[in-house]
Amino acid sequence: MPNRTILTITESVSRLDRFLHQHYPAISTNHWRRALTSGKILVDGRRAAKGSSLSIGQTVSFTTELISELTAELRPAVKPNLEILFQDENLLALNKPANCHTHPLSASETGTLTNHLIAIFPELAGVGEFGPLQPGLLNRLDFATSGIVLAARNNSVWHDLRQQFSQHQIRKEYLADIAGVLETEIVIENDLTHDHRNRRRMTATPPADPCRGIYPAKTEISPLQIMSENNLTRVRLIMYSGVMHQLRVHLADIGHPILGDVLYGSTTDTDNTAPQSETNTCTAATSLHLHCARMTLSDDLVITAPPPEWSLNQTTNSTQNIN
Questions:
Q1: Which of 139, 271, 274, 289 could be cross-linked to 259 through a Cys-Cys bond (beta carbons 3.0 to 4.6 Å apart)?
Q2: Can you give the pLDDT at residue 279?
Q3: Residue 309 φ/ψ, nearest 5 degrees
């Protein structure tokens, strides 16, 4: 029988996942949540849920091998290839290609942005609180989304910028192609929650109780060009919050899903919700027409990414610019 680590609750604790993160701060809360979902952690000898509340005197146990699994080191890319948009002694800004995961979910996975990042900047190991597989990362983009990803080069900067993100002080601008014609600016303020029918999806908060909590989300939409021949509109999307799939859900909810977004309504191009696996590579192919083009930090530092290939391919004789 494998050896087990046993922790005893000696003071009031709100949630099990947070309790474990407090004891092992090098392991992110998300990593603990995944371990709880897999049933590897027991409370008083019984399988526990990630949101379980704890009482003084209860015991939390798990195999000693679990800590090794959760602190596994990131594998550097053999042939690193990284497009750096900005760098100084404190910050890196990277241009993530579409169809590339920002980071792996296990140490065996390769081909993600952070595998390339750690190969070129090994000193980032241990920076930040998102765990060893996300060294220095300050934000993440979906698999099929391209554009700006920031990484801090020391813990002081990481904490400062994460606070800016959490307080909505960083302005993020995206470029997207959406289905249909949109001629006027729109501001959407619909809170989001996880869809209880499909854990891969988010949804606008329904009248019923939310699945895992409510997340405020605001999106500003400005039309840039109308491509009437294809019944598309190119838009600028601005957000300060960073809720999972926020832009994709908000656009789909108003009847203008993003081009290539199979998960939320558009059937154009291929499925961009590919599961994460060891074979994923940072290819340049794009299916989802969503690109993080510009970020403005609270100190007025502006970072821009070059336009994606899909934005350069347009039929000029059927395009109307919006003034």
A1: 289
A2: 40
A3: -60, -40
CATH of span 4-70: 3.10.290.10
Say which CATH topology domain 84-321 has.
Pseudouridine synthase (3.30.2350)
- Residue 313 is encoded by which pair of tokens? 């391919």
**Residues sharing a CB contact under 8 Å with residue 155, sequence separation 6 or more, in sequence order:** 127, 128
Do 172 and 295 contact (CB within 8 A), yes or no? Answer: yes
DSSP 148-175: EEEEESSHHHHHHHHHHHHTT-SEEEEE
Site of tokens 């065996």: 108
Kindly state the average pLDDT of the residues 247-274.
79
Confidence band for 212, pLDDT divided at 50, 70 and 90: low
Name the residue among 124, 106, 120, 127 with its Cα closest to residue 280: 106
SS3 state at 16? helix
Instruction: Return all residues near 195 (Cβ < 8 A) that are at least 6 apart.
Output: 201, 202, 203, 211
Q: What average pLDDT does the structure give for the chain?
A: 86
* Three-class secondary structure of residue 54 per DSSP: strand
Asked whether 74 and 132 are in contact (CB, 8 A), the reply is yes
The first and second tokens of residue 252, run together, are: 């789909």
Written as one string, the DSSP assignment of 70-133 is: HTPPPPPPSS----EEEE-SSEEEEEEPSS--SS-SSTT--SSHHHHHHHH-GGGTT-SSS-TT
Domain boundaries, the chain: 4-70, 84-321
